[in-house]
Design brief:
The structure is a single chain. This protein is of the alpha/beta class. It has 18 helices and 17 strands. Strands 1, 2, 3, 4, 8, 13 and 14 form a seven-stranded parallel sheet that branches. Helix 10 links the parallel strand 13 and strand 14. Helix 15 packs antiparallel against helix 17 and helix 17 runs antiparallel to helix 18. The longest helix has 30 residues.
């Protein structure tokens, strides 16, 4: 059996339509999943929707429909988004799935039986948008939620509590033993600081919220929405494939992606829950930054959003995938702008990459009747450059550095563009005595472009598959094992088609 690779996105809360922030996390997870498939690993990629809690019930009531009707409609939009984005997830979980709810109840009962659940009273400032409590010191200066800038409400009720405080030392021990449990390092430091400051026990049930998973020993309570949601990563493996239990094959997760606003839930609460349930912890969490617009994070609650679909309509899906992965350093905040999008599309996709394919394939067509010559074997330095790019891409992906992997591949793209200018095949074609030099230039271009396409396939899969076809190569030969210099189909017939990335005028940019 090949090595397992289990990757997850956070499950998205169905309180409004998806925006480019959701697209970003899903695309980055998809890029990682595709790369690990290229390595021949046994990949399971999970995404889905979080559909319980007070906020969903309240939103549904405001729209005059049941929580289930509301969840069904919004969940379908997130599933549609995944399809439009070319996301290759293996399963889409919904927390309203009966199988999910049953396993959540089993896990909650396990925590209870292990002595980590007790009954108690609680009072705190609650943000319905976050579905989270805040201490006085965590609130903004105007007594609003620090994330959504909306008023919080004081809630007092008798609930069931999870002994989170009992796991403070174990969490710190785990952070010390696995220093890359959270990437990047700054987020690991942040998680450690949260725990070192002391942990309060966590209210794991709500008595005033009916829309949720019933606490098995107390039907008057429902499971706190965040605990319900976190357990999806485990419950999905029990029913994702009919008749199969995938837990032995894939648990624990290899990498779990999320934005930094839910760091505490995943880096502190989630591992403590798993420790209590005697389940293995994820190998690592990767916490990315926010996509900013006008200097502020995207938020459905505040209305500061970017709709990805106009960009897909105008530029194509791969352009959106490329821009998000290339422009924003993975793990940091980044700004989404129309100007930046257009510049990346025009300068890199259309000019650097698309034009490289177009002019190279057309030269094979013009000078060698469309058939790639046999390799004279005289470009060991270019072959070495390609091998260096392959190694650098793999090294970046091993660190979950998607942006670095693209840059490593782009070094090869730029090298191939320089090769065209250095060799000037159109000059060589005029001198029959230099036919071997022309053959070498064309062969090196075809081999290098093919390898670059394989390296970039996780990011822009549709375009790279079209490119391989244009080179006379099988569209499905995208494994990392195929990146050898001589790994392509010899004497292939090129088939230049329409431009991969047609030129678009700046005044056609979506607004």
């Amino acid at each position: 059996m090949s090595d397992p690779f289990f990757i997850t996105t956070p499950i998205y809360y169905v309180n409004a339509n998806p925006h480019v922030g959701h697209a970003y996390t899903s695309i980055m997870a998809d890029i990682l999943a595709r790369h690990h498939r290229q390595l021949g690993e046994d990949v399971f990629f999970l995404t889905g929707t979080d559909e319980h809690g007070a906020k969903i019930a309240r939103s549904a009531q405001e729209m005059g429909r049941s929580p289930r009707e509301h969840a069904d409609e919004l969940s379908a939009r997130f599933r549609e988004m995944a399809g439009v984005l070319g996301v290759s997830n293996d399963f889409f979980i919904r927390t309203t799935d009966e199988q999910h709810k049953a396993v959540v109840q089993e896990l909650i009962q396990r925590l209870h039986d292990n002595g980590d659940i007790y009954r108690g009273s609680y009072g705190g400032w609650y943000c319905t948008s976050c579905e989270a409590f805040y201490s006085e010191g965590d609130l903004a200066d105007d007594q609003t939620c620090p994330i959504h800038q909306r008023p919080v409400e004081w809630i007092e009720e008798e609930n069931w509590f999870f002994r989170l405080s009992a796991y403070q030392d174990r969490l710190l021990d785990h952070y010390a033993a696995v220093p890359e449990f959270v990437r990047p390092k700054s987020r690991m430091n942040e998680a450690r600081s949260m725990v070192e400051m002391g942990l309060d026990d966590l209210s794991m049930s709500r008595a005033q919220v009916e829309w949720g998973v019933t606490v098995p020993w107390d039907p008057a309570h429902t499971v706190y929405v965040w605990i319900d949601a976190l357990f999806n990563y485990y419950t999905a493996l029990t029913y994702a494939r009919e008749g199969e239990d995938l837990r032995d094959r894939f648990w624990p997760p290899t990498v779990q992606l999320m934005a930094k606003d839910i760091l505490k839930f995943h880096a502190v609460i989630w591992p403590a829950l798993l420790m209590s349930a005697n389940l293995a912890l994820p190998d690592r969490l990767f916490v990315h930054g926010y996509i900013l617009k006008g200097g502020e994070r995207l938020s459905k609650t505040t209305g500061n959003i970017v709709d990805p679909f106009p960009y897909i309509h105008r530029y194509g899906l791969d352009a959106l995938r490329f821009y998000l992965a290339r422009e924003i350093q993975f793990g940091q905040d980044g700004t989404f702008t129309d100007e930046g999008f257009h510049a990346r599309y025009t300068g890199e996709l259309a000019n650097d990459f698309g034009n490289l394919l177009s002019r190279s394939a057309k030269m094979v067509e013009r000078y060698r009747d469309g058939v790639v010559p046999a390799d004279p074997g005289g470009d060991a330095d270019i072959a070495a450059d390609a091998a260096t790019a392959v190694a650098a891409v793999n090294a970046s992906f091993a660190k979950d550095d998607v942006t670095g992997a693209i840059e490593a591949a782009w070094i090869l793209v730029r090298r191939l563009n320089r090769l065209v200018e250095e060799r000037e095949p159109w000059v060589l074609a005029k001198d029959e005595a230099r036919a071997s030099e022309l053959d070498q230039a064309l062969v090196s271009l075809m081999a290098g472009i093919r390898i670059a396409a394989i390296l970039l396939w996780p990011v822009i899969p549709g375009s790279c598959e079209k490119l391989l076809v244009a080179l006379g190569q099988p569209a499905d030969r995208v494994a990392m094992a195929d990146t050898a210099w001589s790994g392509g189909t010899p004497r292939a017939t090129v088939a230049p088609g329409d431009p991969l990335f047609p030129r678009i005028e700046a005044d056609e940019v979506p607004t």
